[in-house]
């Protein structure tokens, strides 16, 4: 399996893990392997003794998960391992079928654009401006991305889009590539990720192909890099990216970058890189509010021709899943798959039943809430700081870290707006609260002591961990 296909299949497996319980996934679906992908066909191999049963039992689930990652034009074929072309085509889920005319148009568009190269999710035909739902959480980032796609290197260069995982950064990056090439088919647009750039660079060093590598990334009109935070703590790769950035920028080429944090928070990057990242427009995306979540689900249901027996089904999902767009779409595919497998209509009752275990009511914004004062009191007690110190301007680590944890939990557990939280933390600006939330979110993912501190605070507050 090549690297790009391996990345795609890992995303499909993540979706499958949402649809079925863990033992079922581990026994039947984890052994599956994607072996070939062309324009409209994904070939997947299964253990020979279970291939037919997996196709009959999980065919629709696999097809739906693949469509979520690659788009509705892909047909999945399942074959026994080592059986060559002897494959059994999995049945398409009726709820996920797309009109042939739309599928054909997408395939033609890709064939007209031979000058684009992409890695991973970039280039997904579902990730276009047409399918992007605009809300207060992403309005600036969307407008900036659209401007760059229409006027490359004339408006914002670089454009730096930042936000937590799953809020639409990759969608905007792919949308830029799609629109750029629709208007200017002769452009050379390179889409990659921070991880892919690093791996290619290291491979070029080992294989003596550094000149070819430089040509690939510097002889382009537009460079789109997803998850640029991956470059942190990779000294030689940072050095190469710095020179690549300068070569493109100095020659008037467009650069668009995405990250889970703003440039100022990428502290492990060299100062000169962070300064260049911040020199253009930095546009952040926040998690979607309820209205935006509901609009996203409606557009997705319309795009995939999902037939709802009860329109409030989408309302239930939007209320229960508030973290990010990726989780929201994962919840929808889980409910649709369960409906397809059981033959039950898509109703709000079904959605409640399916989502109750993963997203219990007490974990949602309408459930178990705490006040900012309660969170501050629990934080002071756990870390041994006084309320005055917590609200002070002191920036020593003993006080600053608990303050950031408290701000993070205030945003997650209270339902208060950022300005309202800031006012209760000594009159701070809403950007300070947002910064604290982002820093703590990143630490929870990477730092065990921080994660354990948040878990302990949540237990003290009798609240589920966000």
Key features?
466 residues, alpha/beta, GMP Synthetase, Chain A, domain 3, Rossmann fold, Helicase, Ruva Protein, domain 3, six-stranded parallel sheet, four-stranded mixed sheet, 54% helix
Quick rundown:
The protein is built from 20 helices and ten strands. It is an alpha/beta fold. It is globular and about 65 Å long.
Tell me what the structure shows:
With 466 residues, this protein is α/β, with parallel strands linked by helices. The chain has four domains: 3-92, DnaA, N-terminal domain (GMP Synthetase, Chain A, domain 3), CATH 3.30.300.180; 106-284, 3-Layer(aba) Sandwich (Rossmann fold); 290-363, Helicase, Ruva Protein, domain 3, CATH 1.10.8.60; 372-460, Orthogonal Bundle (Chromosomal Replication Initiator Protein Dnaa, Chain: A), CATH 1.10.1750. The chain contains 20 helices and ten strands. Strands 5-7-8-9-6-10 form a six-stranded parallel β-sheet, sandwiched between helices. A four-stranded mixed β-sheet has the order 1-2-3-4. α9 (235-250) links the parallel β8 and β9. α3 (51-70) runs antiparallel to α13, α18 (418-424) crosses α19 and α19 packs across α20. The radius of gyration is 23 Å and the shape is globular. Residues 85-115, 118-122 and 362-367 have low confidence and may be disordered.
């Amino acid at each position: 399996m090549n690297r790009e296909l391996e990345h795609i299949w890992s995303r499909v497996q993540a979706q499958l893990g949402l649809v079925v319980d863990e033992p079922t996934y581990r026994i039947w679906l984890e052994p599956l392997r994607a072996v070939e992908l062309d324009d409209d066909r994904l070939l997947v191999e299964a253990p020979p003794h279970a291939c037919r049963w997996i196709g009959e039992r999980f065919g629709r689930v696999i097809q739906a998960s693949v469509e979520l990652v690659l788009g509705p034009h892909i047909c999945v074929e399942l074959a026994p391992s080592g059986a060559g072309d002897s494959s059994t085509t999995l049945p398409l889920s009726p709820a996920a079928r797309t009109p042939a005319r739309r599928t054909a148009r997408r395939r033609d568009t890709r064939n007209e654009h031979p000058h684009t190269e992409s890695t991973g999710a970039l280039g997904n035909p579902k990730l276009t401006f047409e399918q992007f739902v605009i809300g207060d959480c992403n309005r600036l980032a969307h407008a900036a991305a659209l401007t760059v796609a229409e006027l490359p290197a004339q408006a914002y260069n670089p454009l730096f889009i930042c936000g937590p995982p799953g809020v639409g950064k990759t969608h905007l990056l792919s949308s830029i590539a799609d629109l750029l090439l629709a208007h200017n088919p002769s452009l050379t647009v390179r889409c990659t990720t921070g991880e892919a750039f690093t791996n290619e660079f290291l491979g070029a060093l080992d294989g003596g192909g550094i000149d070819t590598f430089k040509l690939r990334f510097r002889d382009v009109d537009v460079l789109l890099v997803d998850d640029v935070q991956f470059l942190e703590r990779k000294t030689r790769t940072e050095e190469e990216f710095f020179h690549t950035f300068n070569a493109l920028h100095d020659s008037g080429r467009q650069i668009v970058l995405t990250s889970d944090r703003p440039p100022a928070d990428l502290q492990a990057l060299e100062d000169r890189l962070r300064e260049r990242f911040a020199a253009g427009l930095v546009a952040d995306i926040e998690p979607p509010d309820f209205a935006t979540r509901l609009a996203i689900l409606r557009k997705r249901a319309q795009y995939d021709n999902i037939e709802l027996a009860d329109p409030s089904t989408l309302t239930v999902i939007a209320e229960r899943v508030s973290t990010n767009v990726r989780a929201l779409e994962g919840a929808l595919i889980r409910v649709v798959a369960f409906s397809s497998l059981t033959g039950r209509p898509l109703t709000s009752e079904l959605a409640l039943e399916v989502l109750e275990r993963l997203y219990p009511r007490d974990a949602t914004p309408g459930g178990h809430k705490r006040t900012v004062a309660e969170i501050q009191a629990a934080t002071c007690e756990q870390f041994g700081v006084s309320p005055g110190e917590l609200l002070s301007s002191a920036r020593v680590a003993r006080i600053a870290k608990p303050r950031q944890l408290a701000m993070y939990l205030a945003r997650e557990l209270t339902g208060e707006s950022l300005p309202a939280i800031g006012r209760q933390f000594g009159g701070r600006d809403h950007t300070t609260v947002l910064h604290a939330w982002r820093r703590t979110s990143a630490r929870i993912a990477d730092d065990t002591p921080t994660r354990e501190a948040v878990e302990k605070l949540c237990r003290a507050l009798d609240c589920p961990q966000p």
